[in-house]
Amino acid sequence: MNLFVETAEMRARRTAAGEGGSSAALWQPSAPEADSQQQQANREHEAARRERVVAREDAPDEVRPDGSYSLEQESYQTELAFDRARTRRRKLAAVVRTIAAIVLVPAVLAVVFVASYTLTCILNGATPQEVVELLGDLAHNVIELIQSIV
Q1: What count of other Cβ atoms lies within 10 Å of the Cβ of residue 16?
Q2: 76 within 8 A of 61, measured Cβ to Cβ
Q3: Coil, strand or helix: which one is 115?
Q4: Among 48, 54, 127, 130, which residue carries the largest CB count within 10 Å?
Q5: How far is residue 103's CA from residue 12's CA, in Å, rounded to a whole number?
């Protein structure tokens, strides 16, 4: 049982049906002489298709004499413009992520430090008033350190 094996005859019918032929021709059994005619027609059609492809590949992709662009060139220009815009967005997003990391990492570290300092003071038995005094002293010391650096 060769359900999944494609013969040359089946391939010819499939390509004929896929390139403008009737899809019903794909499933209709044909007589041997009709097969040979169909194969000959398929060969001619394939040769004509190859000639069109070769002619299209040989055609220059430059501007036409009247200054207009072909549809393929216009479509390609649209894709190039989209790709340039996407690249620009990705670069901008990378810059924003880098700046955010530069700003947010130290800020998060400072918040974690202050929180751990506060919790350490509370665990050592400081009252709420003493915690406020200690945080004020910490802020004063940080400001003095920054002033001594600058």
Answers
A1: 20
A2: no
A3: helix
A4: 130
A5: 66
